Amino acid sequence: MEYICGAYDRLSDADSKTDESSSIQSQKIIIDSFAKFNNLKIYKHYIDDGYSGGNFDRPGFQEMIKDIENGKINCVITKDLSRLGREMYKTGKYIEEYFLEKGVRYIAINDSYDSNIGDSMLGIRLSVNDLYLRDVSKKVKTSLRAKQNRGDYIGSFPLYGYKKDPSDRHKLIVDEDVRYVIELIYDLALEGYSPNKIAESLTLKKIPIPIVHKKEPRAKNVTENEGFGIWKRQTVFGILTNQMYIGNMVQNTHNKISYNSKKLRKTTTDELIIVENTHEGIISKEVFEKVQEIIKLKMTTRATDHQLDYLLGGMLYCHECGRTIRISEDVLKSGVRHYTQCNLYTRKGKFGICSSHRINYDWLEEDIVEYLQEVCEKFCKHYNFNEIEDNSENIVMKNIKEINTKIERIKTLLNSHKNTIDNLYLDKVKGLVDDEMYKRIYDKTQDEISKLSIELENLEKKKQANEKQNDTNSSFHKCKKSILDYMSLKNPTKNMIERLVDRIEIDKDKKVYVHLKFPELRETV
Question: CA 506: distance to chain centroid?
Fold first, then answer.
């Protein structure tokens, strides 16, 4: 059989850059020499320089997989097993499952592994590589944590207002080009400006937003405000509450969820690493504390700006942008008049974003109450409550209970079979079972798993059908009760309206859309 080979070369940042035997060039030489000696044709070298072996989301590796799928190569060669990957289970799955299913021969030269021959020690070799990966991850994490505790900056992109010291990349110096912007933000906060108002002021002054100032790649897509961008409330709020601006180093704001994952989680306040007086502060500590007091006071007194005091407050939305619509008031000689206005327009209307959506709220409230009364009356005429079989819900609940019992039994069996496979794999690694016995037991167990999985899928479908029926019954009874409660009151309460209405949208032409919660209501409108 003729083998067209893909040579895979990988070097991570954690690998020694001084070790010539690990370099990409060295890997190429070793693989090319091996291929020439064994009369194997190299189709292409797939290279990942600077990528960890902990996961397989690497451009070179994914390109190689794509070529395998397209039938361009039927053999993969690496210098050793660790070049393919260090994470045990995923690496083993590629070697023992994916490559075999695709008819791809795999060769790891220095480990003397050839899938055409096999190796009973493969599991042990992979587990050693996995332990190395965990150990490296732990050492790197410990090293970074030590630097953080020392007050060294370890991030890639400094906070807006700072830049890395050219003489020491772990130290920060003030970015003098935007020092005045940080000072302006705090000055406006001391004057009582909210983060929204400060953001609006910065935008009007055409001060470039952080990503534009830093000339980040995504800044190329910024076109608003003549390319300077529109400042966001969250950005301003972050600047006003970050201790970095008083000279304290704040790090460990996010952590990787595991050693072999790129996903991050936001840390809690207790997990932050804060080292005081590590760099020049742009804002004095006294000013920072005063601003924190102002923010805290506004957050406790702002609440919802009395929006929920209105009958429709909290239910109004802009049909175009999807943002909430607030209710405001005009004080006239004839009295107080209330009106609606899109929140996005309030903040950014000066920049041509969205429109006011202004209508008379008092009239809107009257119209909505009258509309809901009509909807309820139509519902009562449409349905004959006496003909509804209330016992149907009990029958459905009984069916669901029986199905759940069967589902739990099958899940227990599936877990048992999966544990059998896991233990079987460990026995194979330890040499307690040979390849023939492993394959026989594995195939038999997988067959049982497949049958149980099909049975479980059918039961889940039955359960969903019954739950849907149950939801329909419950939904109808809930709808019926909500309508009767609504009609029993001469002046409906906010709670009664919220039980019937999901949201109310107003479009730019002042047309109103009422989204009802219950499908039974929507059918009668």
Answer: 31
Q: Are 252 and 267 in contact (CB under 8 A)?
A: yes
Task: Report residue 441 as tokens.
Answer: 């037991």
At 255, phi and psi to the nearest 5? -130, 150
> Cα–Cα distance between 63 and 54 in angstroms, integer?
18
Range of the domain at 168: 162-299
CA distance readout (Å), 38 to 25, 31, 34, 81, 225: 20, 11, 6, 19, 64
210, 288: one domain: yes
The model's pTM is: 0.47
Domain boundary among 299, 314, 337: 299
User: What are the pLDDT digits (tens) for 470-486?
Assistant: 555 566 777 887 888 78
Residue keyed to tokens 């505790």 = 149
> What are 273's strand-pairing partners?
251
pLDDT tens readout for residues 98-130: 998 999 999 999 888 898 887 666 766 666 666
Q: Identify the helix (H) or strand (E) that includes residue 250.
A: strand 249-251
Structure tokens at 73: 């190569």
Contact 21, 44 (CB under 8 A): no
With respect to residue 39, please indicate whether it lies within any of the assigned structural domains.
yes
Counting as low any pLDDT under 50, the low residues of the chain are: 18, 303, 386-392
Rounded to 5°, the CA angle 297-290-213 comes to 100
Q: What percent of the chain shows pLDDT beyond 70?
A: 86
Residue-wise burial string across 225-249, b where 16 or more C-beta atoms lie within 10 A, e elsewhere: beebbbbbeebbbebbebbbbbbbb
Domains identified in the chain, total number: 2
Q: What pLDDT score was predicted for residue 499?
A: 87
Q: Which three-class secondary structure string do you get for 103-158?
A: CCEEEECCCCEECCCCCCCHHHHHHHHHHHHHHHHHHHHHHHHHHHHHCCCCCCCC
Instruction: Report whether 63 contacts 34 (CB < 8 A).
Output: no
Residues 57 and 166 in one domain: no
The 10 Å CB-count burial string (b at 16+, else e) for 375-400 is bbeebeeebeeeeeeeeebeebeebb
- Taking alpha carbons only, the member of 326, 330, 299 closest to residue 312 is 326
Final residue of a domain: which of 113, 142, 171? 142
Cβ(112)–Cβ(78) below 8 Å: no
Count of beta carbons in the 10 Å neighbourhood of residue 82: 24
Domain CATH number, residue 292: 3.90.1750.20
Strand partners, 41: 4
Per-residue pLDDT, 395? 58
pLDDT attached to residue 496: 84
Considering the domain architecture, whether residues 74 and 177 belong to the same structural domain is answered as no
